């Protein structure tokens, strides 16, 4: 929600900015998720069940984005963000299940598979705010705590962003020099973000997510 408008303000057409943005997202998520993994916040057995539906959805979304104008998703984006903000206020446990709540699997809760597939479609199309959508699926449906949900979200986004990068590269919708510069900054920022997430209380992390929702809505309205 920050980097995409920034690229457009620098003069990149919306579809080129959408593709150029993905390389930075991949590096940020790859480095961050590795850091979480080394800290024991990601279990290998949880990766594939979450990654597969989002990966399939991302392929659908990226192919759609490469042929359709990005602006048609703006109302959906804003509605999603506002909906998440309202849900967080009305039911805080949707992003922060009570401590000790048992984690569910996609087999135990098929609705999670559908939610993750739709998250992938959304992320493949425009990316902005997809992390929050995936986190809601993991905390609100599968009952992960925020730190583990954030860690699993990052590795999931890294995986499906590879598909998006390939699609946009084939369509020649990536400007590689700006993409590499952005990737460097986002990679460093991601590592800083992991350190923050590992050292704050769950309640603080919830407030940060809510602030992100509010800022994202504001950025969408301005843009």
Overview of the structural elements:
The model has no long low-confidence stretch (mean pLDDT 80). The chain has one domain. Helices cover 75% and strands 0% of the residues. Helix 2 packs antiparallel against helix 7 (146-170), helix 5 (110-125) runs antiparallel to helix 6 and helix 5 packs across helix 7. With 223 residues, it is an all-alpha fold. The chain is globular.
Summarize the structure.
The protein is globular. The longest helix has 25 residues.
Intertermini distance: 10 Å
Mean pLDDT: 80
The helicity comes to: over 70%
What's the shape? globular
The secondary-structure element order is: HHHHHHHHH
Total helix count?
9
Number of domains: 1
Radius of gyration: 16 Å
Pairing-aware structural class of the strands and helices?
mainly alpha
Weakly predicted, low-confidence segments: none
Largest beta-sheet characterization: none
Can you lay out the helices and strands and say which pair or pack?
Layout: H1 3-9, H2 14-38, H3 44-65, H4 74-90, H5 110-125, H6 130-141, H7 146-170, H8 176-198, H9 202-222
Summary tags:
single chain, 223 residues, mainly alpha, globular
């Amino acid at each position: 929600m920050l980097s995409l408008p920034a690229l457009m303000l620098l003069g990149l057409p919306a579809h080129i900015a959408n593709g150029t943005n993905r390389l930075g997202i991949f590096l940020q998520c790859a480095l961050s998720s590795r850091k979480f993994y080394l800290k024991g916040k990601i279990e290998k057995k949880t990766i594939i069940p979450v990654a597969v539906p989002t990966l399939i959805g991302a392929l659908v979304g990226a192919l759609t984005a490469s042929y359709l104008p990005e602006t048609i998703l703006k109302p959906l984006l804003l509605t999603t963000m506002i909906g998440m903000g309202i849900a967080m206020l009305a039911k805080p446990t949707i992003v922060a299940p009570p401590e000790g709540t048992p984690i569910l699997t996609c087999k135990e809760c098929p609705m999670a598979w559908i939610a993750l597939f739709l998250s992938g479609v959304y992320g493949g199309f425009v990316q902005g705010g997809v992390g929050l959508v995936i986190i809601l699926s993991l905390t609100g449906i599968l009952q992960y705590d925020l730190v583990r949900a954030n860690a699993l979200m990052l590795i999931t986004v890294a995986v499906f962003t590879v598909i998006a990068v390939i699609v946009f590269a084939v369509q020649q919708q990536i400007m590689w020099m700006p993409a590499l510069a952005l990737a460097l900054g986002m990679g460093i920022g991601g590592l800083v973000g992991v350190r923050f997430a590992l050292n704050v209380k769950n309640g603080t992390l919830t407030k940060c997510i809510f602030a992100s929702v509010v800022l994202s809505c504001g950025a969408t309205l301005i843009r």
